[in-house]
Amino acid sequence: MEKLGKSIAIMLASAALIGLLVILINPTYRKTAVCVLKSESTNSPIWKSNTDYYPDLVPKTGEK
Fold it and tell me: Backbone dihedral region of 9: left (phi > 0), alpha (psi from -120 to 50 degrees) or beta?
């Protein structure tokens, strides 16, 4: 049982490290991370590309 817990912890740590590396390497993800930290997620490049790709799912300006 202890071996299983250790394996899961290693997998979680590895996934977190890979995710951090992707954010540091990819400029689009890096800009998005900065926007999320500043609470300006609507200014992120990923949000903008999703708005262009899925126009029916994004509320129009002034709508809730």
Answer: alpha
Distance between CA atoms of residues 28 and 45, nearest Å: 6
**pLDDT tens for the 64 residues of the chain, in order:** 689 999 999 999 999 999 999 999 999 999 999 999 999 888 889 888 888 888 887 766 655 5
Read out DSSP for 19-63?
A: HHHHHHH-HHHHHHHHHHHTT-GGGSHHHHHHHHH-TTTSPPTT-
Positive or negative, the CA dihedral 30, 35, 41, 47 is negative
Q: How remote is the C-alpha of 35 from its chain's centroid? A: 10
Instruction: Read off the amino acid at residue 29.
Output: Y
